[in-house]
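Design job #97: recover the sequence.
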């Protein structure tokens, strides 16, 4: 176990671990998420399947969904709840396979399973699906080992509250941001980790471009900082929103970043040409989450309880809202694409799987530029 200050998070070797024998709770996998008086079955609405996380503690009435991450192999969906517990679900059946942590059951005495003791804000799998990273308000960054039934591989503590963690495409580096101006880089080559800082102490999101050459970071200032994650060089920064950026993603195999913010706008930005391509307000509420559907379409959601499907327009580099999904009765906190299906989770304590309309997706018009800049290996 590491006892670290925020500034010491840079350059941690996560492979040293805290003991491969520390394992999370493994359930039989016979429990579906949604419960009814006539048995344990999913609930269906007009255009979605609705699930609820069963509480682990009898004192908890319902579990708000705070974060999700998709296993790249397509087998698992990791879901975090406001009970401070991570549930690993079978992505096809939505049955619970593993439960990580004691959550609100944690006490100062007796045997405890490793896990979080406050809200979990972020989850991320590496590209191989072998490791799951979690972090949140408790300042813990935990790495779970799929090869050992999602037992705890590494624990890093004494960080500030963390809002977002992401693995580099190669899996050899982790970026983490939160209530600090520093972008924490974690990897096996500790002496080679650069120190990255922003002029903002409330950072909410970070994301590697698919080629690994760029790490984007954003937060309260409404600006995005683009770094070289290998050298630490600030490539450029650009103000693109009038309020706090809550989430963004690079479109698949593209330089184009799409972002959402609390001003209710979505932005399409070319990180290579350093050009704002389009900006559009799609809601009077706040936007919290975005996910790419395919190379030309993304979904955005937030406090208006709706999910907006947005299509990139090639002719004028614009954006059009092509569909809106209604069903949640609370803010949508997180979105994910699971085996071609859109999944959402929110403050109404539900997970929903949505049937997507037929989407025609052409090739990317702005492909990744081939340069001499190397990414994170």
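Job complete. Output follows.
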């Amino acid at each position: 176990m590491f006892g670290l200050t925020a500034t010491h998070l840079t350059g941690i070797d996560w492979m040293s671990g805290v003991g491969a024998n520390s394992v999370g709770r493994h359930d039989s996998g016979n429990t579906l998420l949604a419960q009814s008086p006539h048995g344990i079955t999913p609930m269906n609405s007009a255009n979605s399947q609705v699930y609820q996380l069963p509480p682990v503690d009898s004192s908890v009435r319902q579990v708000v969904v705070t974060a999700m991450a998709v296993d790249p192999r397509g087998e698992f969906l990791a879901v975090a709840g406001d009970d401070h517990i991570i549930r690993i679900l079978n992505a096809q059946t939505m049955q619970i396979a593993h439960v990580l942590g004691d959550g609100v059951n944690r006490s100062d005495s007796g045997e405890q399973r490793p896990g979080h003791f406050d809200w979990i804000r972020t989850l991320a799998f590496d590209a191989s699906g072998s490791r799951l990273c979690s972090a949140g308000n408790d300042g813990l960054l935990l790495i779970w080992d799929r090869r050992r039934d999602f037992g705890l591989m590494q624990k890093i503590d004494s960080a500030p509250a963390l809002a977002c963690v992401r693995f580099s495409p190669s899996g050899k580096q982790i970026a983490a941001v939160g209530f600090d101006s520093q972008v924490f880089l974690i990897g096996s080559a500790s002496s080679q980790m650069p120190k990255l800082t922003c002029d903002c102490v409330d950072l909410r999101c970070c994301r590697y471009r698919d080629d690994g050459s760029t790490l984007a970071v954003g937060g309260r200032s409404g600006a995005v900082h683009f770094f070289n994650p290998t050298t630490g060089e600030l490539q450029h920064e650009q103000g693109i929103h009038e309020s706090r950026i809550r989430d963004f993603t690079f479109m698949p195999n593209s330089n184009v970043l799409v972002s959402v913010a609390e001003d209710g706008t979505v932005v399409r930005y070319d990180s290579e040409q350093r050009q704002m391509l389009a900006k559009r307000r799609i809601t009077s509420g706040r936007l919290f989450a975005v996910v790419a559907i395919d190379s030309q379409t993304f979904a955005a959601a937030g406090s208006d309880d709706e999910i907006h499907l947005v299509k990139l327009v090639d002719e004028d580099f614009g954006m059009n809202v092509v569909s809106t999904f209604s069903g949640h009765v609370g803010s949508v906190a997180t979105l994910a694409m699971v085996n071609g299906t859109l999944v959402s989770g929110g403050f109404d304590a539900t997970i929903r799987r949505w049937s997507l309309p037929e989407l025609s997706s052409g090739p990317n018009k702005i492909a990744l530029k081939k340069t001499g800049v190397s990414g994170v290996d």
